[in-house]
Design goal:
Elements: H1 3-7, H2 11-14, H3 23-35, E1 39-46, E2 49-56, E3 58-60, E4 63-68, H4 72-79, E5 82-88, E6 102-113, H5 120-125, H6 131-136, E7 140-153, E8 164-168
Antiparallel strand pairs: 1-2, 1-5, 3-4, 4-7, 5-6, 6-7, 7-8
Length: about 170
């Protein structure tokens, strides 16, 4: 690489655009991204002490489901149901290409679902595990109901859209 190439600021960093997707297009892109991912970072908080946990998830529409083992995250959710979830494109971790930066920042609240609660079997089934596992499992399903989802994709600038697009749950 030549020295002048290193010192030049990439156009993607200087390009300004504020154009937003239609609500339908934004929803479609968010759902497609959620369906293509399986790992997220769930952030909870207790007594102003935040905790972030990498955890597998499945989605059904805009709702996220996680299988939570007993521990700090479940205790935090019991005391404070407000959560944040980060889902990102793993290709960006080792890429120098700004176009690979893609992710979701989800703010909402979590609901814990025990084996005896309505919705447990449906949520457990999303993970494709044998039913016998559910019978012997002592954890809880975590359901995340999003209030706000921020989509960040630097590549959107190539389409003349703002890199940050915001979805807010209808009715809020």
């Amino acid at each position: 690489m030549k020295e002048h190439e290193i010192s030049e600021v990439p156009e993607i960093l200087t390009k300004r655009t504020s154009r937003q997707f239609s609500p339908e297009e934004l929803e479609a892109r968010i759902l497609k991204f959620l369906e293509s991912r399986r790992l997220c970072v769930l952030s909870t908080c207790r007594d102003n002490v935040p905790r972030s946990t990498p955890i597998l998830f499945r989605s059904k529409g805009f709702f996220l489901y996680m299988a939570g083992e007993p521990g700090i995250k479940l205790g935090n959710i019991k005391l404070n149901p407000k959560v944040s979830v980060g889902v990102f494109n793993p290709e960006a971790e080792f890429s120098d290409d700004w176009h690979d930066i893609l992710g979701l920042q989800i703010s909402g609240h979590a609901k814990l679902i025990g084996k005896q609660d309505p919705g447990f079997q449906e949520a457990f089934t999303l993970f494709g595990r044998p039913q016998a596992w559910a019978e012997h499992w002592f954890g809880m399903m975590i359901e995340v109901i999003p209030d706000r989802i921020e989509l960040l994709s630097m590549a959107l600038k190539l389409e003349d859209y703002a890199a940050r697009q915001i979805w807010i749950r209808p009715g809020l």
